[in-house]
Amino acid sequence: MGDNTRRLEAVCEKVVEKVRPTADQDKRLREIYNLISGIITKFLSDLGVEASVMLTGSVAKGTHLSHDQDLDIFILFPVEKPLEDIKRLGLEVGERVASELGVKPERRYAQHPYTRLQFRDVRVDIVPAYNTEKGTRIITAVDRTPHHTEYVKKSLSEEQKDHTRVLKEFLRANNLYGTENMVGGFSGYLCELLIHHYGTFPNLVSHARRWTPPVVHVYAPDQIEPCDSPLVVQDPVDPRRNVAAATTTKAFSHFVVLANMFYEQPSEKFFTPIRIDASAETVKRVLSEKGTTLVSVVLERLPPIAEDNLWPQLEKSARYLRKKLVEQGFPVIHTFCWAGQGRAIIFLESQSVSTHPIRFNLGPHITTSWEKQRAYLGKRVSSGDVVAGPYLVGDRWVSETRREEINIVEGVRRILEKGHGLGRQIRKALRGSRVSLDPLEAATSGEVLNTILSEIRRDQLVQRFRVAHGCG
Amino acid sequence: MGDNTRRLEAVCEKVVEKVRPTADQDKRLREIYNLISGIITKFLSDLGVEASVMLTGSVAKGTHLSHDQDLDIFILFPVEKPLEDIKRLGLEVGERVASELGVKPERRYAQHPYTRLQFRDVRVDIVPAYNTEKGTRIITAVDRTPHHTEYVKKSLSEEQKDHTRVLKEFLRANNLYGTENMVGGFSGYLCELLIHHYGTFPNLVSHARRWTPPVVHVYAPDQIEPCDSPLVVQDPVDPRRNVAAATTTKAFSHFVVLANMFYEQPSEKFFTPIRIDASAETVKRVLSEKGTTLVSVVLERLPPIAEDNLWPQLEKSARYLRKKLVEQGFPVIHTFCWAGQGRAIIFLESQSVSTHPIRFNLGPHITTSWEKQRAYLGKRVSSGDVVAGPYLVGDRWVSETRREEINIVEGVRRILEKGHGLGRQIRKALRGSRVSLDPLEAATSGEVLNTILSEIRRDQLVQRFRVAHGCG
After folding, report:
1. What residues have CB less than 8 Å from A288, skipping those under 6 apart?
2. To 5 degrees, how large is the angle CA A306–CA A311–CA A316?
3. Chain A contacts of B457, Cβ < 8 Å?
4. Distance CA A298, CA A448 (A)
5. Do B357 and A472 touch (CB under 8 A)?
6. Torsion-angle region of residue B48: left (phi > 0), alpha (psi -120 to 50) or beta?
7. Closest Cβ opposite residue B213 in set A290, A373, A395
8. Is there a contact between B471 and A333 if contact means CB atoms under 8 Å apart?
9. Would you state the CATH architecture of domain A2-142?
10. Which residue from A149, A186, A281, B103 could staple onto A56, CB 3.0 to 4.6 Å apart?
11. Distance to chain B for A199, nearest Cα, Å
12. Distant-in-sequence, close-in-space partners of B15: CB < 8 Å, separation ≥ 6
């Protein structure tokens, strides 16, 4: 065991060397921040607006990764200022900065709009917020961020900041970092609090191996709102809030399994994404071995929508398509999405390309008024569609109608045409989409092929296991 | 409404004329009873056994139907006599009666064995029981019967006995009479208590139209055992017992619907079973219209088993076959049985003749010890059967294997070969059974064809509705 722990620490040290930004990198980020905050301060002072500029996020906290060049710049306004003014001023500031730097501003939406711009290789977000007192009620969702930044800066040691970086890299390599995608993983702030709680990454790993949900870290249990999350970590800045609220059971379980695998066979390999190199032939062969059908819905022209917002909408659309298809008698067993370069694809894996013949239609209960039951019976009895019944199942009428047997492609097209239940902002894109049974028609890049192969095999954890145990 | 009630009463009167036995019929039954009770009394007195003979059942109560020639003859022993002696003596008496009448005794089993014999056109059951005091705990299940007989004899008026006959005929014509078959319908004693409660058949019908489960008739609510039956009728002879315990929600609901149909369009037609006359061609056409497949499991040689016991076993076997087939990926939507002339058939209606390709296999939870999870992973990863995973669904491992695609006939054969979960006494018969996809191969009589047509159309209530409304 002791030997094992030392190996774990050794791996950890090597990873720190890779993911800790160099002094030069940090100096450069700092210079860019100073340049931009200077522009902002001058602009606001020219306007006579009272506000302060603050660097927040992982760069401010010192928990950023060497390959993560993001600046989160907050403009903090007095709480008395109307929200409309703040939104407007925030966007004006963003445009002024972009114009002075000679780059294009991109308007993005979280709870309220903010500006994103790319300056050289650095992504800069310029976000307006309220300068609230710590511990008081926040006004907008981002008002907590400055307090989180302050809390982490003062609470984590330099070593713990490095260990946070290691944790983030571990999660990132295993698709568990971030909460805004299909994973429902771990946010950066959650990583910082977990390292603060367990002290080091190796200690977190050896505890997480035995995690049984719910895992609860609270200091004021009576103040947190009840929840059924697998992980509950009370926010030191706002005791009502569970920092891990967005972490799904799936992501939690993945982390526990990965902690076990990593603890058993510590290796730097756990910090590198699993590389798969799918060929069209492999994808074809695996589908044929499974005997399933893969339907792809290709959205060629996505509306201008932030990735954080795109994923939930794709996911929602995929869930809706699956639900409707299952209702229509298609045995869909899995859905997954891919997005990139302004395109997106929803994939649906089905056990059959055609529907089952019978559709069960629920009618009234026998406790409904007889007049209604009689009307139902009269209608159904004279309907040519009914192939069996109406009959009673327990205390409820049911009839069977024969489905027009349709191919799943046609089934998907019909659902898309109606468009209800699909992600609102991409409904239009879905309507003009292509639906195909040939996965290779959709797979226009190796990246798409890799996604398909990984999802139809569902073998991300298996791959980690193989790598760890040197088998396969 | 008044007009309607009068029509209802008129129908009721006409039915009474048909179902009330003639004086000659009753005289004949009485003579046969006297003959048999004489034989029994003499036999027991020769043996020096203290016991009395009693006529029980519907003939004794005066609620029997003209076409129902059954005598239930009870031999009542003192409560001190050991059960083994009673069982032995009961069978000896049965044999003696059969021998003196020159007929063949049939040994049958309820909770304990009794003798059935056919004398001319009368079915005679000779049943040993304990002569318990009314209101005291019974020893065997049949000990209540004499008390039920006494209760009904003294409580029902002659008119109410006739109305009980009408109710029984109504239920019988609609497959709701009796509790020992697939219907889970209304027992004779329940019919008598319902008529006692509502006074007349028309009054029962007009109340039953608005029945909302649970319908509760109790006089000592604290004494009855809690149950979730749709109908609760406390036994006047044993307050712990719900006389309607065996009545299913399905049978209850059928009765409510039929009460509405009959009330609305009173007609003698409701007292005649729906006649269907199925041809092989009709059965073929309906199946082809539905697009479903009908598998028949034909049991050519049934063991000597009473019909009351055969039905539950057939039903159990059908349920088991369905469950197993669904597990194996066959979309079975309906099962039904037929039995007659020493043969029985289990029918399975399926949406497809072949399985779906993927089987989902559940593995351990992530809270299981890592050693067990690792062993599971190691085994699954090296297995050639796995086509996807293992992966996590929530906090549980799942893997996908490809099913060998098989035809439903082969699927049924494999389940029958194993034989677990099938009705114990017919397991042997099932093993030597034929399994066929051709419904006409099994349909060796018009009666079987009628059963098939009625079940694949599931239209018994629809037919009643059509007849009542003169449509179709």
Report:
1. none
2. 130
3. 387-389
4. 12
5. no
6. left
7. A395
8. no
9. 2-Layer Sandwich (3.30)
10. A149
11. 24
12. B166, B169, B170, B268, B271
Note whether B377 contacts A256, CB cutoff 8 Å: no
Helices vs strands, H then E, count in chain B:
17, 15
CB neighbours of residue B468 within 10 Å: 19
pLDDT exceeds cutoff 60 at A1: no
Question: How far B185 CA lies from chain A's nearest CA (Å)?
Answer: 13
Over residues B288-313, mean pLDDT: 82
When pLDDT is averaged across residues A47-57 and rounded to a whole number, the result is 95
Probe site for chain A from B212, B369, B376, B377 (most A CB atoms < 10 A): B377
Q: Are B438 and B432 in contact (CB under 8 A)?
A: no
State which H helix or E strand residue B241 sits in.
strand B238-242
Three-class DSSP category at A266:
coil
C-beta of residue B380 within 8 angstroms of C-beta of residue A465: no
Check: CB of residue A286 under 8 Å from CB of residue A460.
Answer: no
d(CA A355, CA B36): 64
CB spacing of A391 vs B459 below 8 angstroms: yes
Does 2.60.60.30 match the CATH number of domain A156-271?
no
pLDDT, tens only, B341-366 = 778 899 999 999 988 889 999 999 99
In chain B, what residues touch A462 (CB-CB under 8 Å)?
A: 377, 380-381, 389-391
CATH homologous superfamily, domain B18-142 = Beta Polymerase, domain 2 (3.30.460.10)
Whether A156-271 shares its CATH topology with A280-354+405-469 is answered: no
Class at the top of the CATH hierarchy for domain B280-354+405-451: alpha beta
Q: Is the pLDDT of residue A472 over 50?
A: no
Judge contact between A456 and A290, C-beta under 8 A: yes
Among A211, A250, A379, A381, the strongest candidate for a mutation testing the B interface, having the largest count of B CBs within 10 A, is A381
Task: Tell me which CATH homologous superfamily contains domain A280-354+405-469.
Answer: Poly(A) polymerase predicted RNA binding domain (3.30.70.590)
**Domain ranges, ordered by start, for chain B:** 18-142, 156-271, 280-354+405-451, 363-398
Contact: B291, A358; criterion CB under 8 Å:
yes
- Beta-strand relationship, A113-119 and A358-365: unpaired
ipTM of predicted assembly, 2 dp = 0.87
Quote the tokens at residue B129. 């029981």
Question: Between the CA of residue A372 and those of A364, A365, B253, what are the distances in Å?
Answer: 8, 10, 15
